[in-house]
């Protein structure tokens, strides 16, 4: 795996309080902070648009369980997954100047 053991633990497991996901303190874990940002913004879009995971899965062509795992912080989503989900909800999920904000 590229990056060695960097992704051996799920993003939420890097938090001081994993149960606080997606608002947990992940200080110093920039990759996990990015996944948390994506999960938080995706959850907000799902709620605002009254989407079910099934409907989002169909619209994005991303497996429903993959979406659930991302939202729960149990997985490290790849770029294609984030891009498809962002397109399906009509907003950039990636943090930074071209996304919804900085990490």
From TrEMBL:
Top-rank lineage group of the source organism: Bacteria
Transmembrane intervals: none
Family matches, as Pfam families: HTH_3 (PF01381)
SUPFAM superfamilies attached to this UniProt entry: lambda repressor-like DNA-binding domains (SSF47413)
GO molecular function: DNA binding
Ranges for domain HTH cro/C1-type: 43-93
Annotated stretches, region: Disordered: 1-25
UniProt xrefs under Gene3D superfamilies: lambda repressor-like DNA-binding domains
InterPro entries: Cro/C1-type_HTH (IPR001387), Lambda_DNA-bd_dom_sf (IPR010982)
Protein name: Helix-turn-helix
């Amino acid at each position: 795996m590229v990056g060695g053991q960097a992704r051996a633990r799920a993003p939420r497991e890097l938090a001081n309080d994993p149960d606080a996901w997606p608002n947990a303190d992940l200080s110093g874990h920039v990759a996990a902070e990015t996944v948390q940002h994506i999960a938080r913004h995706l959850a907000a879009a799902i709620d605002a648009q009254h989407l079910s995971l099934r409907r989002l899965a169909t619209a994005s062509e991303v497996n429903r369980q993959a979406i659930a795992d991302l939202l729960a912080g149990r997985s490290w989503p790849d770029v294609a997954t984030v891009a498809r989900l962002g397109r399906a909800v009509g907003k950039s999920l990636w943090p930074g100047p071209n996304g919804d904000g900085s990490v």
